[in-house]
Amino acid sequence: MKQLVCCPIDILAHKQSLMKHTEWVLGRGFPMSGVFSAKRLKGACPQRESAVSHQNNKRYLGETTLKGFTLIEVIVVLAVIAVLAAILTPIIIKNIEDAKIARAKSDVESIGKAIVEYRNDIGFWPSKHRNGASNPWQAINVIASEDITKIAPPDDGSDYDWNRGQIRTMEQFLINNDSQIVEISPNPHGLPAWEGPYITKLELDPWEYAYVANVGWLPEGADYSTSSTRRVWVISSGPNMTIETKYTGEGSIGGDDIGFGIK
Question: Is the previous residue joined to 136 through a cis bond, with omega within 30 degrees of 0?
Answer without folding.
Answer: no
